[in-house]
Predict the structure of Cell division ATP-binding protein FtsE.
Amino acid sequence: MIVSVPKPSSDDVSVAFQGVSKRFAASGESGAFTALNNVDLDVGLGSITGIIGRSGAGKSTLIRLVNGLEKPSSGKVLVDGVDVGALDEAGLRNLRRSVGMIFQHFNLLSSRTVFGNVALPLEIAGVDRRAIEARVRPLLDLVGLADKHARYPAELSGGQKQRIGIARALATEPKLLLSDEATSALDPETTQSILELLKRINAELGLTVLLITHEMEVVKAVTSDVAVIDKGEIVERGHTFDVFTHPKHETTRALLSGLPGSKLPDAVARGLKPAASAGDRAVVRLTFFGATAERPLVSQLIKSVGAEVNIIAGTIDEIGGKPYGSLVVAYAADAETSGRAERFFTENGLVTEVLGYVA
Ligand SMILES: Nc1ncnc2c1ncn2[C@@H]1O[C@H](COP(=O)(O)OP(=O)(O)OP(=O)(O)O)[C@@H](O)[C@H]1O
């Protein structure tokens, strides 16, 4: 007799989405709206994994399945190997203690002090006063707000409120932290400091972080792994560095084009044509990393192509601590010049993308 045994989730996986679909009843229409379609995704234990997608792609729905705020219509969501959809109320309470969450609008209680907000999950869990004191003080130290323990949320900046949100999320010593657009309401500098804090918590406490965002900057700054979601389907996933330097799906490319340094100057972008006419120049993006980033590529390119090469845009940056560069150049689109340029790109292991042609 053949017995089918459910696939065990591997030891190094924090959250596993297995063939997960979510359909919502559509009001006023027949049928249902499919918010998630057959999602398979593993979130590595100890990783900072980002889920990025445009508005309405299904990010919030995906994250709400992890702490049981939604149930899948089909498929399974496993957290540390436990099937969230099969939990009863007591099981869900336990799960929510081991899964912290932070929110775009912080969700602090205005009538409670900073200390009172961080203590709340512990009070709900029935922890005694002394143990609460012993837990909350070091958490406030960790997020750098020990001196604000008696203040009220209205007296804090957005970044400080999010630090309190993080301390509160950590109060019950979760193994997993969910972040729902936690930096979207913050200015760029405050965003950076919150992302640094998340990185530190991930490294020091070994906490897995699953964050959803529509901002590529956030993914670039903090995640080790990323999945791109589009219309309820995961269209691309991998280590963040690989996905950023070799984006395969059109949605990923579109999201990446919004990054500072990736944008073409307006005058060039407006004049870009999909095909070349006689006398046009090809506009090509070169991406280089590792050892390539340190070589004098531009002068070598000019020498090899033997014609005028214009530099249109360029940036040197880091993804997950690894340096990479992106350079947009233009050169004559005739077959001979293009052939020489392509040989140079191949010989130097450069990733290239023809963006179009300009007169
Ligand atoms: N309770 C619900 N009932 C009906 N439709 C819903 C429900 N929740 C979400 N949806 C729909 O599912 C789709 C995905 O929504 P979701 O909130 O997951 O997207 P998102 O990627 O988080 O978007 P945003 O970045 O704008 O928050 C949307 O089209 C939304 O209208």
